[in-house]
Amino acid sequence: MEDTATFERTDPAAPLRQVGALIRGARQGRKLTQAQLAERVGTSQSAINRIEQGSQNISIDLLSRISTALESEIVSFGEQKKNSHLRVQGGRQLHGTIAVRSSKNASVALLCAALMNRGRTTLHGIARIVEVDRIIDVLRSLGVSVVWSPDGQDVEIHVPADLSLESIDEDAGRRTRSVLMFLGPLLGRYDTFALPYAGGCDLGTRTVEPHLIALRPFGLSIEATAGWYQATVAPDVPEELSVVLTERGDTVTENAIMAAAVRDGVTTIRNASPNYMVQDLCFYLELLGITIEGIGSTTLRITGRSVINEDVDYWPSEDPVEAMSLLTAGIVTDSEITVTRVPIEFMEIELATLGEMGLRYTRSPEYAAANGRTRLVDVTVHPSKLHAPIDKIHPMPFPGLNIDNLPFFAVIAACAEGDTLIHDWVYEGRAIHLTDLTRLGANVRLRDPHRIDVSGPTHWSGAEVSCPPALRPAVVILLAMLAAKGTSVLRNVDIIARGYEQLQERLITLGASIETFRD
């Protein structure tokens, strides 16, 4: 491969020089400065300079982060590209305390919303994941200044008066469905614009039609041609606008909110999602001077502004899906662990369902998140004898059980006595990925594209499994491997980095035995 080094053994310094040259070429090919690459991987510009000169040793971890940031496999120890895999020694209890990090979905929405602000937006504690990097790539290609703080925790955004829409990073845009959330902010600034077709997880058909239905009242019309959404915005939109969403989707609601926020006038949105990432977006927009009535409900009344120029700081709230992932790690390994900074408002149904299944847990008094709005608690799970719930487990729009938390109940149900029906009515392709749990000893039967039957308890055993092409099922398989005695291998795990920041390293701090390797 032309972008891959094969180590030579004659000159000890040759590998460092080869790697440095490849990193420099890949960085320049991505049109990044040394400082920008340093921001992405959490190191200094001087360190990147020394690495590119071949004068500094580089750890496998840093090399992996550089490869991810540059979207290029820098080093190969053979002739084939090296894929990332995880080797898990399971069947051991976990212990300790771990904190929930900020929401990936909120971070992505806030990055898109920053397009509306001509002033400075600083987002603190933002998720450092692949999905965020892709959105930042798209923003930078439009001419937006996006700069990470030296510690890699915060990002500062400055939007120019005129965006370079013709220079949009088509490749990054196609690999994230979140690019659809540029529709709302852009229709307030341009009469015509184009966005690349959106990508994302393999979860079956996920039509963009709900987005178009939500945005048509704002004057948006879309024509799909040759891999692009060609957008046209009509000028004659009434000052008072009423929008009814046919689907109470999170990103659909966010798009409608942003379209309402960036126009002079009052918009009422009905059947809106009140989910966690939507509330984060509303809290940020309030700092920009947008008046929003009904936050947390299904009816929003928004008084927008066509010109927004504010210097603001915002802290995204903690991620309830990550909280569920970490709690599940403790549950399936029959461990006692404490998960701190759990956004309880968005986890109450999940915890109530787990309580009905016999889970013993304790929670701390509530305290405020850094944004001053989200309620947090610390949750400790204790070893418990679980049993199947009386009713099926299924998701509902907030305040129901979160659709992204549903897959974790498959591995939990496999640890419980009895039969559990899990109904994933949203995605017609995701349930089938959960049948991979059978490779580890679980009894999971697919009824149809939306429903699975799970019988337990499972006598887990190690196995080798290829990572499903969907984020949450992939993490579910990894968590099951923590419970499975013996050695398990999860192959091709790059998709996990789309939604989780250093998940395996953080599980290791709880006592998990997980090794990253390539072959």
Automatic annotation (TrEMBL):
Domain HTH cro/C1-type: 23-77
Major enzyme class: transferase
Cellular localisation: Cytoplasm
Keyword annotations from UniProtKB, A to Z: Cell cycle, Cell division, Cell shape, Cell wall biogenesis/degradation, Cytoplasm, Peptidoglycan synthesis, Transferase
Keyword Ribonucleoprotein in record: no
The EC number(s) this enzyme carries: 2.5.1.7
Pathway annotation: Cell wall biogenesis; peptidoglycan biosynthesis
InterPro entries hit by this protein: Cro/C1-type_HTH (IPR001387), Enolpyruvate_Tfrase_dom (IPR001986), Enolpyruvate_Tfrase_sf (IPR036968), Lambda_DNA-bd_dom_sf (IPR010982), MurA_subfamily (IPR050068), RNA3'P_cycl/enolpyr_Trfase_a/b (IPR013792)
Domain of life per record: Bacteria
Annotated SMART domains: HTH_XRE
Signal peptide: none
Reactions the enzyme catalyzes: phosphoenolpyruvate + UDP-N-acetyl-alpha-D-glucosamine = UDP-N-acetyl-3-O-(1-carboxyvinyl)-alpha-D-glucosamine + phosphate
Main localisation: cytoplasm
Protein task: Cell wall formation. Adds enolpyruvyl to UDP-N-acetylglucosamine.
PANTHER family documented for this protein: UDP-N-ACETYLGLUCOSAMINE 1-CARBOXYVINYLTRANSFERASE
Family: Belongs to the EPSP synthase family. MurA subfamily.
Protein name: UDP-N-acetylglucosamine 1-carboxyvinyltransferase
Lineage: Bacteria, Bacillati, Actinomycetota, Actinomycetes, Micrococcales
